[in-house]
Amino acid sequence: MSGRTAQLATVLAAGLSLYAFYWVIGIIQPQIYRTSFLLIALILTFVVFPAHRRWRPRVMWLDWSLASLAIISLTWPIIDFDQFVYRAATPSSADLILGTVTIILTLEATRRTVGPILPVTAIAFLLYGYFGPLLELVGLNIFAHRGYDEARLIGTLYMTLEGIFGVPLNVASTFIVLFTIFGSVLAHSGAGKFFIDWTMAAFGRSQSGAGPGRTVTLSGFLLGTVSGSGVATTVTLGAVAWPLLRRAGFTPEVGGAILSASGIGAIMAPPTMGAAAFLIAEFLQMNAFIIDCQYFWILSFSH
After folding, report:
1. 203 Cβ partners below 8 Å, 6+ apart?
2. Most CB atoms within 10 A, among 19, 88, 165, 217?
3. CA distances from 17 to 11, 30, 34, 38, 182 (A)
4. Are 292 and 268 in contact (CB under 8 A)?
């Protein structure tokens, strides 16, 4: 992108990051924060990710239309917040229309960013919730249920903290975004390069892709010693190590698998060590340090 569109994307991305920083020190109602966070994220998604690859890097009229609909549908809960939260059980006509629009926009944004599998799965479960009684007519009694009407589905998904604005968005808007920014800081400050260089010196002698794979594994282990969070380690390491894996010839799927395994497994790295390490040690009657060593060597040399 170029021109005003690129400037808009930069302002939205920087603003979303600053908004996340403000959440750390400010007091914001959870539903207002998650709604406004999703609003900015949806606009940014429709501007940056095209509906089809051949439309890149232009922003088409469809993208601007979807961004405008996102503004309308997600500004409504903020403006009418005092009454909005009490109508979840009995949504009004405006709530039903804007809730339907929000669900469609979220599914479309998901399709653009991660592909069709996740939104198709979500649509399948929405249809299951609505057409549950019909399953009994076709002999699937074990899966049949009484069904939920539009008001119940949209009220839960759009007007409460149990649907679109539930745990996944909460984690993404509070922890994931902060660790993503932290990973970017590590990448640009050179701190992330230190982990890569140090581990590359130990495992980078291989002429195949095994060297970078082992390097990423050990880097995740080192970063896990100070983070104590598997998700944080994965996100932070991914921002730094993915270019290395890409140059080594790893596909996005395999590279993502290595990064996730290295990051999530790193919660067993001492001294912080997640509770899972101690639970495993208790069940297996083994020393936690031995488990750490086994995890590290098995995971690293399997790459």
Report:
1. 210, 211, 214, 215, 218, 300
2. 217
3. 10, 17, 14, 13, 11
4. yes
How many C-beta atoms lie closer than 10 Å to residue 70's C-beta? Answer: 25
What backbone phi and psi angles, to 5 degrees, belong to 57? -100, 20
Q: 97: which 2 tokens?
A: 């229309």
Amino acid at site 44: L
Task: Check whether the bond before 271 is cis (ω within 30° of 0).
Answer: yes
CA distances from 26 to 41, 122, 187 (A): 20, 33, 27
Q: What is the pLDDT along the chain (303 residues), one digit of tens a residue?
A: 678 888 999 999 999 999 999 998 888 899 999 999 999 999 999 999 988 877 777 888 899 999 999 999 999 999 998 889 888 888 999 999 999 999 999 999 999 998 899 999 999 999 999 998 888 887 788 888 888 989 999 999 999 998 899 888 988 888 778 877 876 776 677 766 676 677 667 665 555 566 777 777 777 777 766 665 677 677 777 777 787 788 778 888 888 888 888 777 666 666 555 555 555 555 666 554 555 555 555 455 444
Q: The pTM is what?
A: 0.73
* Torsion sign over Cα 187, 189, 195, 200: positive
